[in-house]
Amino acid sequence: MEMNRQSLQRTLTVRIDRGAGPNNYATYSVPWRENQTVLDVVTEVQRTLEPALAYRFACRVGVCGSCAMTVNGKPRWTCRTHVSQVQEDGVIVIEPLRNMPRIKDLVVDMSEFFQKWKKAGNTFVGTATRNDPPANVSPQSSKRKKADAAIECINCGVCYASCDVVSWDKEYLGPAALNRAWTLFNDERHVDTKDVLRKATSGSGCNSCHSQGSCMKHCPVSLSPTGSIAGLKKSALMLFLKGG
Amino acid sequence: MEQRLFALQRLSAMVMAPFVLVHLAVILYAIRGGLTAAEVLGRTQGNPWWITFYSLFVISVGIHVPIGMRNILIEWGRFERRTATVICMLFALVLLAMGLRAVMAVGGRWS
Question: Which of A173, A237, A238 would best serve as a mutation to test chain B binding (most B beta carbons within 10 A)?
């Protein structure tokens, strides 16, 4: 009976880009279960078939943003992607995120991604001291609404991997960093919002965006970095025309 | 500099959009009955409207096109920013020289 059930169980073919040599895809077969995320599959491969497989994850429930990978050509959180959503004829192809150098297997080096956050001007500098009362920012104010719409980013890097401009121009700050700059620009407690625009527009900044919208399409929390970047562009242009 | 170029490219585009429409409309209107080169030149030469229109048109093109070319060189040609800037400055000069020379040739000879 047990034998029979096993032989009836479907198997899923998993091709993983391991980045060594020209034939860098390793193929594994794992049980194809009723409920299974892509992260479950990677974990199963690592625990039962390939102990040396490197990948990154932490929370497993879509909070931390660590487990982003390229699944069947698209950047996604593997913990929030069910196999049934993405498998094609019983096959899934898993690759590391695009636009970031690979460390090993499915793990990429995100240091440049985070350096660009700094370069785009991500650091909040307040004007109040600890003796001042907390700032009273109205949830109805237009700036607060704009900041709210973009604030939920958890730095997973999916937008950065999906962006063609990043793949063309290695200096381009990318959607996540510029999205953060937009929230800071709209933070009325921030000391120098003009400086945010200056940083966001210098070099390959917000003005390099082609508004293709890949970041918006792939963002796992449905943010619109494209919209944030458009806001930065517009604000920077108005400031420039006013002579700022 | 990036912000200035961005603004210049948008502003020159705003100038060029009606120019392109007028340019096309005039061509369609003017050649309905067929015109010889001499007839064309007879209308353009010494015509201050024509000369002003196309001089501004050429200048807008000379600003707009090299800025876009620069972005293409940086993004698709993987050029260094500075190299792309120099190449496009030269390209701007070539465009302006050729364009203004054409304006002088077709609109010149005040008589």
Answer: A237
